[in-house]
């Protein structure tokens, strides 16, 4: 594995040169548009060794299920030239241990929290939502209906509009109405826009785009799949163009729905690209394995990039790439005739 590059936080306020970095996801307002991505930082204890996690927009927890889960067999991680493949399989301690340990720590720490939930049935999602409804310190719920790291692909509710909408409607009905619900969708579908619209109509207050995309790595020494589970979720720089494409397509059909963008973000310019395509905020994931302080660095770099482009508010940059062309500013040069003609 690549050696981690650790950059210790030096303290002080988050630099935002003449830019209002406030971000909103439905009714949830944050001082920073940079969040963690589910599954890449657990509940934040590890990252809190390197910087104050309360300075982020929010911590997005690893997806929790009703009961403890051991996940898939090892090996479960494989490096790729531009990211990594993981086959963790939703390993976790179960919701009750999460509440007693992780959520309690996050609440005491004062962090903003988006709890990610996952389930094998619609009923499990509903039961989780009912339990979380009684808890304090939760700012939003991310409904993970798109994890590819399961043995049964039939569990991936986000692959069909009707099953995705069914889970979202059940969670929305069972949750505190004041808590925003974000549906986390998969890029591994033929018509993402239709699924996104179905989730919005079912009661989703926002969308998380995207989850990892399904892949396989073959070890050329053993000449067998590198992962015990064969398939895994690809994350890292390789999927950023896919994330941008998905955000763009959904923003075209749902111009007002809040979007949490995620996928391949390593720099402030990467984050800006997702925002220009339509994301209201951005989650940072795989890059924290190499650079635990990346979320704060990305926030700072994004603030500078916005200021350099004349933006006074982050919100002004959201979906900016969708604007109509300024024809007066476009100079059209006559094409040169090739010499061989």
What does this structure look like?
- By secondary structure, the chain is of the alpha/beta class.
- It has a single domain (23-71, 89-212, 236-324), classed as TIM Barrel (Alpha-Beta Barrel).
- It has eight helices and 16 strands.
- The protein has helices at residues 95-109, 122-133, 161-174, 192-202, 240-253, 268-277, 294-308, 314-317; strands at residues 23-25, 28-30, 34-36, 59-60, 77-80, 83-86, 113-117, 140-144, 181-184, 206-209, 213-216, 218-219, 224-225, 231-235, 259-262, 281-284.
- Strands 3-16-15-10-9-8-7-4 form an eight-stranded parallel sheet.
- Helix 3 links the parallel strand 8 and strand 9.
- Helix 3 (161-174) runs parallel beside helix 4, helix 4 crosses helix 5 (240-253) and helix 6 (268-277) crosses helix 7 (294-308).
- The protein starts with 22 loop residues before the first strand and ends in a 24-residue tail after the last helix.
- The model is unreliable at 1-12 (pLDDT under 50).
